[in-house]
Amino acid sequence: MMAHLDRFHANVRALCSLALARLPRMIDPATGLFSFGVSGEGLAPRGTSVRYTAMTAIGLERAEAHGLGAPVDLDRLYEALGATLPGVDNLGDLGLVIWAAARRARPLAERALRFVDEFPDHVQRRRGQSVHSTELALLTSGLTEALAAGVGSERDVRARLDRSFRCLANQRGPSGLLPFSRPAPRREAPPTLHERLQSELGFFDAQIYALLAALRRHEVLDDAEAREMARTIAERLLACQHPLGQWAWHYNVRSGAVVDLYPVYSVHQDGMAPMALLPAERLLGISTVPAVARGVKWLFGGNELNESLIDTERSVIWRSIRRCAPLRSVVYPLKLASLVDVGRSLDLGARLASPDVLEIDREMRPYHLGFCLYAFSALVGSLPAEGEAPSDSDPRPTLKTGEHAEPPPRSRASNSA
């Protein structure tokens, strides 16, 4: 067991080192924002992203707080985010900016807060007609961080947070998982067939961000409903993890069953699943570390292709293992089969993906590295230096490493409106 944990620790240390080495090279010099991503053997950059900049800033702040250092000037990232804030038309992006800025750039967080009320019924975009689970969960996390850090009026922030969390909880399907989106409450037009599908099926990101939002609300406000919501999501995801440690991409929110395993994204393995499941072990008392360790091992070659997705020399983690084209379109009949409850126990998506029809998607996005830092900085910062003997406080016996970088919430974040 100890040898297994040592390998896990060595792997996450290597991942954090890689992230810190690569991220400075992913900033666009013209805007100060992170690029949308790099791709191909030449690692050619493309575009910029407010969303990915905020996500990456969250991880870099965590790394700095736990002694790993921050090779990027965080204040300049906040300035770049502030310059683009008036053009942001996505509720989740505003939530991410609030989250990223709450502790270190309060004026930026307060500016972002003022824009939230321009999104009626928590729709994804100002003139949108649907409520997207991922965006709503990101907003809920941002508002919780604002409340904990004392950003804005406590009463107003708490009221916004309560409305956001209630809407998020109402997104859940019978299984406790969340769909991609649902029609806005006051919308008059009937939903289209496509919108009905979006309300029945959900992706991994919505589950993880909702889990993280519920956990953080419980931690700050001692909210029993949020705790049980988090427990349901965490237990369902753990039950759906595949034998090699893969986190499936697509779920049926009525049954909780996996619709399709692929693509298996690297960021789910070493970023998004760990950043929610490690604190779930600490706050809920459920065992999650073995599942997280399996997920990380998948990246280092313990996967369907027996090939590492990590290029340490080039500081790259490739994006996913996916079906080769044109077989990617098999997801559509899998969705239909799921909706009529055919083949639920057969794991059809995994069966339709032998190694000879799989490939590595050679692309990388900066938020992946930011979320890896968010997930593992607390653990890596607590480990003894390489070659140093473990101390009595070595975290290996329990690995309860989901602590937040900021001090415990202040008394102002009480469980009363």
Mean pLDDT metric: 89
Shape: globular
Which structural class fits the helix and strand makeup?
mainly alpha
**Distinct helical segment count:** 15
SSE run:
HEEHHHHEHHEHEHHEEEHHEEEHHEEH
Largest sheet at a glance?
3 strands, antiparallel
Structural commentary:
This protein starts with a helix and ends in a 35-residue tail after the last helix. Helix 4 packs parallel to helix 6. The model is unreliable at 394-402 and 404-417 (pLDDT under 50). It is globular and about 50 Å long. It contains 15 helices and 13 strands. It has 417 residues and is mainly α. The protein has a domain at 224-362. The strands form five sheets. Strands 2-1-13 form a three-stranded antiparallel beta sheet. It has a three-stranded antiparallel beta sheet with strand order 5-6-7. A hairpin with a 4-residue loop joins strand 1 (35-39) and strand 2. The chain is 50% helix and 10% strand.
Characteristics:
mainly alpha; 15 helices; single chain; 3-stranded antiparallel sheet; 417 residues; globular
Question: What is this entry, summarized?
Answer:
The protein is mostly helical.
Describe the SSE topology.
Elements: H1 2-22, E1 35-39, E2 44-48, H2 50-65, H3 74-84, H4 91-101, H5 106-116, E3 130-132, H6 133-149, H7 154-170, E4 181-183, H8 193-200, E5 201-203, H9 204-221, H10 224-240, E6 250-252, E7 258-260, E8 264-265, H11 266-284, H12 289-299, E9 310-311, E10 316-317, E11 320-323, H13 331-339, H14 348-351, E12 358-361, E13 363-364, H15 366-382
Antiparallel strand pairs: 1-2, 1-13, 3-4, 5-6, 6-7, 8-11, 9-10, 11-12
Helix pairs in contact: 1-15, 2-3, 2-4, 2-15, 4-5, 4-6, 6-7, 6-9, 9-10, 9-11, 10-11, 11-12, 11-15
